[in-house]
Specification:
Radius of gyration: 19 Å
Low-confidence stretches: 1-6
Protein name: FCD domain-containing protein
InterPro entries: GntR_C (IPR011711), TF_FadR/GntR_C (IPR008920), Tscrpt_reg_HTH_GntR (IPR000524), WH-like_DNA-bd_sf (IPR036388), WH_DNA-bd_sf (IPR036390)
Helix content: over 70%
Organism: Duganella flavida
CATH architecture of the largest domain: Up-down Bundle
Order of helices and strands: HEHHEEHHHHHH
Strand order of the largest sheet: 1-3-2
Shape: globular
GO molecular function: DNA binding; DNA-binding transcription factor activity
Pfam families: FCD (PF07729), GntR (PF00392)
Distance between the termini: 41 Å
Number of domains: 2
CATH class of the largest domain: Mainly Alpha
Number of helices: 9
Largest sheet: 3 strands, antiparallel
């Protein structure tokens, strides 16, 4: 990797590490050595330390005294709680946002859906989480409830890597996610706000259930 720019070095290092964690390139439990990261980014250890502190605040990194930083992993209960909070808050925002969505918003949603379909069929997993987050962001963008929106944005960020994992489970998961997103946008476009909110809640709960089953299977000790 080329050296990072002199300005906002810590932020750029945090962005680079965040992308690696979200994509799964840096898996749960992996040690993040400051000297190795500083060498990779071509910067000093101070901005690397600042970046790790920032990512700890986002729940992506855990800094252990006398041991250093590791990529954080969430328990099944913690993951389920994050998705549960999303299933409660996102429909509330959607009910307020959907009636205010503009023609420009729907044009953006259609573009996201089109790109999402291409990336899903091409199995480009690194784009799935980003497009999923963008679609949810646009759908909820007109709610005019900034505090709730900020909480949901954090929840989306914290569940992003798990959303990608859930989407990659099977072809059926991919098809269902695509179908639900398209139906969600159409319900909003048709003015069926209650139906859209109900579908959004089921969509999040379904993702959580599939993901929980997958993680339990992955973490089960080998016999």
């Amino acid at each position: 990797m080329k050296g990072l720019a002199v300005t906002t070095v810590a932020e750029q290092a945090a962005d680079a590490l965040r992308r690696k964690i979200m994509s799964g390139e840096l898996p749960e439990g992996m040690s993040l050595r400051q000297d190795a990261l500083a060498a990779e980014f071509g910067i000093s250890r101070i901005p690397v330390r600042e970046a790790l502190v920032q990512l700890e605040g986002e729940g992506l990194v855990k800094i252990v005294p006398h041991k250093g930083a590791v990529v954080s992993g969430l328990s099944i209960d913690e993951i389920s709680e994050l998705f549960m909070l999303r299933s409660l808050l996102e429909p509330v925002l959607l009910k307020k946002s959907a009636p205010r969505l503009t023609a420009e918003d729907y044009a953006e949603l259609d573009a996201i859906l089109a790109e999402y379909k291409v990336e899903l069929h091409a199995q480009h997993t690194t784009r799935w989480g980003e497009l999923n987050t963008r679609l949810h962001d646009v759908l909820l963008s007109r709610a005019e409830q900034p505090r709730t929106a900020a909480i949901v944005a954090t929840l989306l960020q914290q569940t992003d890597r798990y959303t990608r994992m859930q989407l990659s489970l099977s072809a059926d998961s991919i098809r269902q996610a695509q179908q639900e997103h398209e139906e969600l946008v159409q319900l909003c476009r048709n003015g069926d706000v209650r139906g859209a909110a109900s579908l959004l809640k089921r969509h999040i709960e379904h993702a959580s259930k599939d993901l929980e089953q997958f993680i339990l299977a992955q973490r089960k000790p080998a016999k």
